[in-house]
């Protein structure tokens, strides 16, 4: 028979696994609000979500890729190149619609190349890391070439493009994308197959799943959202920077990991990725409010990522141990 202490221990462990991200967010908010009373305001939280919306959009696509058992390091460069091309198109008289189409096509095209290359060699995390690092370098070079290595100021008239990055519009876009992708992940065959592929790619092949097509689609979605994030970013600042997306890939991976998606693939949640992005945004905002400089902020972010990965590994081992005990 199980002891009461064992039952309580398992209950606490299950609560931490399911709601650990939300608990961490609440703790950060409470501590910072006690230290700085101006932190806990509606205006500040709207500002935080607006700031994390771009990374959040990229992180949603990254979640699909990681659940399927891979990485996509090219998303930051896609943000940069799509922004440069979009602003340049508008400046050259191409129009807003054409600028948006070009930016999205760049994202989808890079995602297609990533997906095909990784799928054809049956690549897993390690191979995906190297291949997407290669495409990241190529796309970053294209962004520098297209802009001449310089900022490109946008000559954008009031309209759809200019409004995409203003006010609460980025927040609304982020929420709509997150809801749609969570629905796809949890309520569709496409989403269930994603988890199956990430959990055991060989078994997925033997079961008749079109692994190459599916994995390519996941990378294309990731690229598409990175391209769209480039549009939102350039709309916000009315200019493009050939290095504007630098580091976005790491921030996106951090949001996914902090949200609890396993780096080993096979399971995850868009909702928790959103919470992960908000946690990182709240933490950075709290550190700014407390007048803590950039370097300590980077250290804190790194520690949080390390702890998140460590907890993921420990949780997986604990679940395996529980399953083994149940079979005895």
Which structural traits does this protein have?
328 residues; ABC transporter involved in vitamin B12 uptake, BtuC; two-stranded antiparallel sheet
Please, could you describe this protein's structure?
By secondary structure, the protein is mainly α. The protein has one domain (44-308): ABC transporter involved in vitamin B12 uptake, BtuC (Orthogonal Bundle), CATH 1.10.3470. 78% of the residues lie in helices and 1% in strands. It is built from 13 helices and 2 strands, in the order H-H-H-H-H-E-H-H-H-H-H-E-H-H-H. It has helices at residues 4-35, 42-67, 75-91, 96-120, 125-147, 160-164, 169-187, 189-199, 201-206, 211-237, 248-258, 270-289, 294-327; strands at 152-153, 239-240. The model has no long low-confidence stretch (mean pLDDT 87).
Instruction: State the helical fraction.
Output: over 70%
- In N-to-C order, the SSE pattern is HHHHHEHHHHHEHHH
Instruction: Give the number of DSSP strands.
Output: 2
Question: Which fold name corresponds to the CATH topology?
Answer: ABC transporter involved in vitamin B12 uptake, BtuC
**Widest sheet: strand ordering:** 1-2
Structural class: mainly alpha
Tell the overall outline: globular
Q: Give the percentage of residues in beta strands.
A: under 5%
CATH architecture: Orthogonal Bundle
> Over all CA atoms, what is the radius of gyration?
21 Å
Treating each run of at least 4 consecutive H or I residues as one helix, how many helices?
13
What would the average pLDDT be, to the nearest integer? 87
Report the sheet with the most strands, covering strand number, pairing sense and barrel closure.
2 strands, antiparallel
Please indicate the count of domains: 1
Q: State the CATH class.
A: Mainly Alpha
Distance between the termini: 14 Å
Low-confidence blocks of residues: none
């Amino acid at each position: 028979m199980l002891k009461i202490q064992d039952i309580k221990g398992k209950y606490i462990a299950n609560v931490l696994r399911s709601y650990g991200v939300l608990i961490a967010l609440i703790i950060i908010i409470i501590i910072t609000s006690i230290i700085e009373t101006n932190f806990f305001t509606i205006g500040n939280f709207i500002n935080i979500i607006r700031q994390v919306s771009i990374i959040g959009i990229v992180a949603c696509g990254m979640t699909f890729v990681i659940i399927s058992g891979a990485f996509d390091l090219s998303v930051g460069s896609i943000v940069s190149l799509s922004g440069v091309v979009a602003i340049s198109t508008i400046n050259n008289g191409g129009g807003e619609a054409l600028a948006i189409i070009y930016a999205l096509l760049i994202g989808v095209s890079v995602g297609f190349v990533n997906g095909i290359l990784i799928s054809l060699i049956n690549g897993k995390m390690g191979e995906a890391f190297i291949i997407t690092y290669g495409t990241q370098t190529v796309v970053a070079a294209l962004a520098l070439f297209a802009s001449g290595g310089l900022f490109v100021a946008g000559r954008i008239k009031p309209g759809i493009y200019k409004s995409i990055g203003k006010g609460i519009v980025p927040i609304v876009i982020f929420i709509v994308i997150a809801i749609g992708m969570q629905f796809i992940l949890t309520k569709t065959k496409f989403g269930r197959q994603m988890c199956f592929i990430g959990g055991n790619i060989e078994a997925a092949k033997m079961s008749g799943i079109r692994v190459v097509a599916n994995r390519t689609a996941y990378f294309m979605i990731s690229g598409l959202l990175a391209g769209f994030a480039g549009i939102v970013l350039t709309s916000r600042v009315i200019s493009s920077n050939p290095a504007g997306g630098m580091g976005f890939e790491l921030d996106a991976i951090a949001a996914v990991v902090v949200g609890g998606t396993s780096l080993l693939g096979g399971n995850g949640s868009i909702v928790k990725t959103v919470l992960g992005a908000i946690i990182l945004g709240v933490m950075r905002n709290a550190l700014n409010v407390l007048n803590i400089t950039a370097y300590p902020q980077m250290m804190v972010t790194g520690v949080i990522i390390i702890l998140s990965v460590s907890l993921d590994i420990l949780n997986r081992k604990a679940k395996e141990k529980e399953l083994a005990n149940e079979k005895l």
